Amino acid sequence: MLFNVEGVVYQTLKSLCAKRYWAITCIVMLNVLVVCSSFGIAYTVELLFKQEVTATTLNQFVAIILLLLLTFVASNALRQKLVFDVKEMMSTKLMSFAIGRLMYKQQQLFDQTAPSKLYSNVDYDIKAINVYVHFVLSILIQASATLLCGFIYLLVTNVYMTLVSIVAVPVVILMIFRISQKVSQANSHKRDMVSMLNAAIIESLSGIQSIKVHKMEGLLSTQIESKASDVYRATKRLHSLESIVSGLIIFGGFSSVILVLWIGGHNVISGTMASGELVAFVMVLLLMSYSFASISDINTVTAKAKSAINNLETLLQCDYELHAINTKSAEDIKHISLCDLSFSYQNNKEKALNGINYTFQRNHIYSIVGRSGSGKSTLIKLISGLYYNYQGKILLSDAEAKSQQGSPHKHVALIEQDPFFFNGTIWQNITLVDNDKKIDELRLNRALALSQFDRVIKNNQITIDSNISTNANNLSGGEKQRLAIARALYSDCGILILDEATNSLDKATESILHQHLREIARNKIVLVITHNLNSINLSDQVLVIEKGKIAAAQPPNQIITNEHFIKISEQTKSLQKEC
Fold first, then answer.
1. Which residues face 498 on adjacent strands?
2. What integer pLDDT is reported at residue 125 of this predicted model?
3. Model pTM greater than 0.90?
4. What pLDDT is stored for residue 575 in this prediction?
5. CA dihedral 120, 125, 128, 129 (to 10 degrees)
6. How many other C-beta atoms can be found within 10 angstroms of the C-beta atom of residue 71?
């Protein structure tokens, strides 16, 4: 089978085609009209030379030919317009579908492959599908109809000359098939090279500030130039093979025309064939040669599209987190139990977490401390549902997180050190809804007040309807942190995680947040990752993580005498003195 008809990409394409049913139907009818008008011109020429030509007859036939030509041109132009509309609609819809689905994939995929490279691969594959759609709607239908009708027309006109004209076709097709296999391999190689180049460009531009600070422009420019050269060589080979295929088609087509002219010319001289019949025969043969040339790369185009769809099917195949069934509400999350929890990152034999057993209770605040690389962030990522390839169990109120099929991250609000914001209004970035009618005004006002972002709005003389740029570059670091806190508080999730969330805040704002932390923790499990050991007094329990294990877990007044905590405290003081 050409494509996997059960695949999500194929089904999406099928759905998009169904939405443009009438447009596609019109395209098919216009293709038929184009073919009929072109053959009508050839037949009119044949009729013209079958009778005695007078000025009146010539004028009449020329008028008919002009009418047919106008029909051909108008039909072709309208068909092209509809084809471009359909393929661009399918291209944009498929891209939005692919990226939307890609964002549901597990974090492990993005650890293995850079997001910029993933996007480049998706873009390349969608372009290949786009070319195939254009090929089918604009070329294949017309060319196939032309070849079929032309062959019938030639057989009816002169069987002998028809057989003579197709002598070279089998040989040409065999050679094209052989070369097309190499074209497919060259296309895959080019795809990889283009993906690497695009990834290098996107990643370089996204880190332009660091590049300038560390004077890396020359090095990265050289790397990009090297990758661009690889793309050029891959493209050059691909185009060389495609040019050979095109040359074979042109040679085969015109060889047939020359052979027909030579044999047909002798027939006209001997009187066994009318000159008009020969002219019409050659015209139809030229139409068929052009059509044959147009569909000569059908194997290449189809192979590219098949490869593209298979690539997308593999990339976008359904992860269990997409289904999100049997989810619990925030009120149902009474505790999080970690049972012999272990985890290793891809291609890293050393365990980031090793046999952790612990239970986090609702209405409690937990401070998690430890040296860099001890496993604090990894633990948070697992609780947040970013990874599922762990050993042991994560139980959300006695329900295994994996069996929740995507629900863990729906219960977690994470305030990061470097939060992400999209280009949109302030209220959209806080509420994460696209319609202001869905906003809970009371909850929004509470989130703004507790995060102190209402002061940012007042001081900057903006409103919640004001736009912010991607990553909120028009806000300061502290203002972005407050916005992230407001977003987390508005979500009202059962699990709230603060990952060094107060680093960019001024002391006054941090103090206000700490004062309200107990109120915020009501009916929630609050986990605070911090290097500020002075803030642990706000917690009910303090966990010390060392080498992927919980080395100590005690209330603040007891943990300060623990040897593991003392080591971290001394290290922190030492670093502060060095700074």
1. 415, 528
2. 92
3. no
4. 45
5. -140
6. 17
**Residue 552 and residue 539 in contact, taking contact as beta carbons nearer than 8 Å:** no
Mean local confidence (pLDDT), 376-403: 82
Instruction: List, for residues 174-207, the tens digit of each pLDDT value.
Output: 666 677 677 777 877 888 888 888 888 877 777 7
What is the rounded CA–CA span in Å between residue 184 and residue 190? 10
Dihedral of CA 82/84/90/92: which sign? negative
Does an H or E element contain 354, and which? Answer: strand 353-361
**pLDDT of the residue at 174:** 64
3-state secondary structure of 504: coil
| pLDDT at position 326 | 43
Burial 109-130 (b: 16+ CB within 10 A, else e): eeeeebebbbbbbbbbbbbbbb
**Cβ–Cβ under 8 Å, residues 486 and 327:** no
The secondary structure element, H or E, covering residue 415 is: strand 412-415
Task: Round to whole Å and give the CA distance between 199 and 118.
Answer: 8
d(CA 339, CA 357): 5
Give the Cα separation of 112 and 389 in Å (integer): 14
Q: Is a pLDDT exceeding 70 seen at residue 257? A: yes
Does residue 405 have a pLDDT over 60?
no
Alpha carbon 260 to chain centroid distance?
A: 51
What b/e sequence results for 517-539 when a residue is b if at least 16 CB atoms lie within 10 Å of its CB, and e otherwise? beebbeebbbbbbbbebebbebb
Q: Say which residue the tokens 């030229």 belong to.
A: 286
Q: Give the tokens for residue 304.
A: 């590219």
Q: Is pLDDT at 321 greater than 50 in this prediction?
A: no
Burial class (CB in 10 A: 0-12, 13-18, 19+), 2: exposed
Angle at alpha carbon of residue 375, lines to 386 and 522, rounded to 5°: 65
DSSP letter, residue 16: H
Domains of the chain: 8-318 (1.20.1560.10), 365-371+408-578 (3.40.50.300)
Alpha helices in 328-461 (DSSP H): 376-383, 426-431, 441-451, 453-459
Instruction: Give how far Cα 160 sits from Cα of 123, 165, 171, 190, Å.
Output: 50, 9, 19, 45
